[in-house]
Amino acid sequence: MKTFENSKVTKNEKLQRFELAVEEDLAILEYREKGGVYSLVHTEVPVPLRGKGIANFLIEQTLKQLEREGHQIRPLCRAVSAFVERHPEWERLLART
């Protein structure tokens, strides 16, 4: 069983990023917000944790939270863009302008 799947993704508004604590490390998804549109600019998973699905989990949980809050996204990060391409159901959050 993956140890992070019961972890909670939190929004750190001061640092403008979503965070996922895994073991003793922190995976992050940085954003810039303007007018309710979140530009998702960078995803980073510490090297020892890569290849375990953590980035996908972080992205999915972030998108779920933004959807609950009624926001749209601009996926400027390659990882987020690739995730949305693989999961077209998330295209509903894409900002149109």
Automatic annotation (TrEMBL):
SUPFAM superfamilies: Acyl-CoA N-acyltransferases (Nat). It comes from the Bacteria. Pfam families: Acetyltransf_CG. One of its GO terms (molecular function) is transferase activity. PROSITE patterns: GNAT_YJDJ (PS51729). Keywords: Transferase. It comes from Pedobacter yulinensis. This is N-acetyltransferase. Residues 10-95 form the N-acetyltransferase domain. The keyword Transferase applies. InterPro entries: Acyl_CoA_acyltransferase (IPR016181), Gcn5-rel_NAT (IPR045057), GNAT_YJDJ (IPR031165). The keyword Transmembrane does not apply.
